[in-house]
Every structure is written in C-alpha cells, then in structure tokens.
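Ticket #4471: structure output looks truncated?

Reporter: J.K.
Steps to reproduce: submitted the chain below (252 residues) through the standard prediction queue, then opened the result file.
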Amino acid sequence: MCLIAVAWQAHPDYPLIVLANRDEFHARPAAPARFWTEAPQVLAGRDLSAGGTWLGVTRQGRFAALTNVREPGMPPGGRSRGLIVSAYLLGEEPAEAYTTRVTAEGGDYSGFNLLASDGDSLWWTSNRGAGPRRLDPGVYLLSNHLLDTPWPKVELLRAGFMAQLSQPDPEALLALLQDEREAADIDLPDTGVGLAMERLLSAPFIRSPQYGTRASTVVMAGEDRIRFVEQGHGPEGPLERSVFAFDRLASA
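Returned output as attached by the reporter:
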C-alpha cells in the first residue's frame, strides 16, 4: 500500500474504518481480494511474485496493512515486506506481540510501516522510526514515510475522510481514493526521486502506463459484521470490483 487512512474507535458503529490505495508497477502480477483457499478465514489480495499481501482482514476481525518507505538508492531487504502482513493474518499472535517482534526483525526487510489490529487494539510500527506504538482512538494517515507525515496526498485524504466520517459510505470513500489532483511544486516533499516523479506520486490516486494505483480498498469493521470493497485499476481504467459482507466470528 502507498496511502492508508484509518479511523480507530472513532465511529459508534464501526470501530475500524480503513481507506487504502495500493500503488505498484502494473507488470507485477497480483490476485484481487478473495478468501484464501488454504486459509478461508483470511480475506486479502495476493502478490503473485512473492506470495504475501499488502492489506487484509480475517473473519475474526484481525486487520493488517503495510506501506513501503520511499528511500531510493537503498539496497533491497532480503525478504518481501508483504509476508509481514500475510503472517499476521494467518496467525493468532496479539497485535502488540507481533509488532514488537517484527520491529526487532526489521533489518530483514526494506523500509516499511505496518498497521495491525487484533480487534482490541491497533498498533503501528516501522523499521525506519520509533515503534511499536499503540494508537489511541482517532484518525491516522500513512503514506511512504512515517505515521502522519503531512505530505500533500495525506492531508488531502485526511480532509475528505474527516468530512465523511460521521456518515461513512463505501462508494463515497472509494471516490476519495480516486482523487488524481497533484500537489503544487512548492508543497512537494523531496524524497530523492526527481521533480517529475514527485509530482506524479503526490496525488492520492496515481495513473501512468508503467506504475500507478492498482487497487482501492475500503474496510468497515463493526462489532458484528465486516464490509470490504475493493476496486481494481489498470493503466487504462477500472478493473474488477470485489464486494464482501460477512458476519464477524468470535476469536478462538
């Protein structure tokens, strides 16, 4: 993922609301969100190159999502970051214990941010900053830097999300994720990728022939039921829409 907004215990009916865009090279193969055959409690897309995922939930209400840290020129880590999310969804480890362990193992991976919830708590960690950290009730944003770094795309999504949070609607939330407005040059961060690329990456929704937003996802997790909507995107426009609504099961 490259842009995530999370409302944690900020809505009376939905303790967890997530908006997320996954940005990736279009040539990298991926499967859309499905319940996994070998683990039918897990609902997530899948990276068909390395086998992990970028965002997912379980029938018990576990949630995890990850963004990369933009750091051009750094040598790649030895393991795929998507395996961090899939391992959490497949396991039963509490979010605190898992984020603590992953933080200690962070040297195995390129830069990442991880959000993980076990239904009782929400945690953030990164192998490029202080962590892990238990998040208090509120709204949090992540892009390709540390939590709540005020990049233009982060603040644009924050404003739209806050305006809709009292009456969240999946279609309206998806529309926020498909905003292609680029930031003014004066507001761009300098992350070492050059001005043209900074402009392209500054929009919440990225469109280009080789690299762009591949999936927009909305998760609305209530106490008893979970709604999950994913819109796939290709370089030429919309692809498959996946919609799920299911009862939340008690944890084992």
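Triage note (M.O.): checked the attachment and the full token line is present. The radius of gyration is 17 Å.
Status: closed, working as intended.
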